[in-house]
């Protein structure tokens, strides 16, 4: 049972927050955590953790509390915390292992189930081609949250050069015409659209 928690954190002291978190994860030999820093707001981090069981989550949370992890970050606030599940991935379990950048698109959605089905088709058409170009794709669906009808598409990008092209031209530049047809069908299902672009601070794995 793979699930995750995604946290958006605004740090008062970004460098301290990154260093303290990295040191804590290293101390406990955590391989299931990803950290990215917003390229537009360098004090905002995306913190993603992957769990295989509730017991693993509880054990790691206890380690965090015992170490007073949040209290040692130097101040800040969590902007959002969501429990999520991965539903579509072109590189299951490894997409965030080696990427240098992360682009995240999504928000509230009027038909999450249909969006999941369409995203699966897009991956079947273009997933391998994007992987060959250094872009892994993950779709996540919210399990908890306010609102809960949210889904996000994550693009884990290997290189600086590819990240620049995705940032300026958009991910559609990497898709085939068949893939774009389905993307055009899926986009209107998002009733709110958000995008974040992050530079990797820590990879999973």
Number of E-type strands? 8
Oligomer: single chain
Q: Spatial order of the strands in the main sheet?
A: 1-3-2-8-5-7-6-4
End-to-end Cα distance: 18 Å
In CATH, the topology is named: Alpha-Beta Plaits
Plain-language structure description:
By secondary structure, the protein is of the alpha+beta class. It has one domain (3-202): Alpha-Beta Plaits. It is built from five helices and eight strands; from the N terminus they run βαββαββαββααβ. An eight-stranded antiparallel barrel has the order 1-3-2-8-5-7-6-4, surrounded by four helices. Helix 3 packs antiparallel against helix 5 (177-186). The mean pLDDT is 96.
SSE order and pairing:
Layout: E1 3-11, H1 14-27, E2 33-38, E3 44-51, H2 54-66, E4 76-89, E5 101-108, H3 112-132, E6 135-142, E7 150-157, H4 160-169, H5 177-186, E8 194-202
Antiparallel strand pairs: 1-3, 1-4, 2-3, 2-8, 4-6, 5-7, 5-8, 6-7
Quick overview of this protein structure:
The chain has a single domain (3-202), classed as Alpha-Beta Plaits (2-Layer Sandwich).
Key terms for this structure?
205 residues, alpha+beta, 34% strand, 33% helix
